[in-house]
TrEMBL record:
GO terms, biological process: amino acid biosynthetic process; aromatic amino acid family biosynthetic process
One Pfam family here: SKI
UniProt GO molecular function: ATP binding; shikimate kinase activity
Keyword Endoplasmic reticulum attributed: no
Protein name: Shikimate kinase
InterPro entries tied to this protein: P-loop_NTPase (IPR027417), Shikimate/glucono_kinase (IPR031322), Shikimate_kinase/TSH1 (IPR000623)
Superkingdom assignment: Eukaryota
Family under the similarity heading: Belongs to the shikimate kinase family.
Gene3D superfamilies, A to Z: P-loop containing nucleotide triphosphate hydrolases (3.40.50.300)
One cellular component term from this protein's GO annotations in UniProt: cytosol
Key words, A-Z: Amino-acid biosynthesis, Aromatic amino acid biosynthesis, ATP-binding, Kinase, Nucleotide-binding, Transferase
Organism: Geodia barretti (Barrett's horny sponge)
Length: 181
């Protein structure tokens, strides 16, 4: 039997949380944002966890949160941009739902992060140097991990509602095909 969680992964600013909330509203599934859960448990923002304790501690917190959030099924889970890159966290997510990697070009991601505010400064993985170049480097580095998702859905030039509809269409097709096999 295929796990029935809908899991959204991908780089920052590809719309995982926004699309997840739309899917939750459309399906009645409980929506959980992995980063928000980590912040709740740690009682401090992610950039402070990175600053105070480092990325290794953050990734361990992320893996533990992923394991507990996947329990029970019938959820929409939005994972942080680097969660799926970590092998153990990736395995947990792949085994507990249908994983959709939301994608966008580096230029789209840069635009989404920097429009209207200098929010790139609060993104720990973009600290230091040119944010667009850092986005390109990280996308290249993470591409092999993101390619392991069950499905990929491009978000460039699409509304979050259009992306949610596409994810749900693919999810329903996958579940139906699996049930008939």
């Amino acid at each position: 039997m295929i796990p029935d969680n809908i899991i959204l992964v991908g780089f920052m600013a590809t719309g995982k949380s926004h699309v997840g909330r739309i899917i939750s509203r459309l399906t009645g599934r409980r929506m959980t944002d992995l980063d928000e859960e980590i912040v709740r448990r740690a009682r401090k923002p992610i950039h402070q966890i990175f600053s105070d304790e480092g990325e290794i501690v953050f990734r361990a917190m992320e893996r533990h949160a992923a394991m507990t959030l996947c329990e029970g099924g019938n959820k929409v889970i939005a994972a942080g941009g680097g969660a799926f890159v970590q092998e153990l966290t990736r395995q947990v997510l792949l085994e507990n739902g249908i994983v959709f990697c939301l994608t966008a070009t580096s230029e789209t991601i840069h635009y989404r992060i920097t429009r209207g505010s200098p929010s790139a400064a609060v993104r720990p993985m973009l600290a230091g140097g040119d944010p667009l170049e850092r986005i390109r480097d990280l996308l290249d580095e993470r591409a092999p991990a993101y390619a392991q998702a069950h499905h990929a859905v491009a978000t460039d030039d699409r509304t979050p509602e259009q992306v949610a509809d596409e994810v749900l269409r693919i999810f329903e097709t996958t579940v139906t095909a699996t049930a008939q096999a």
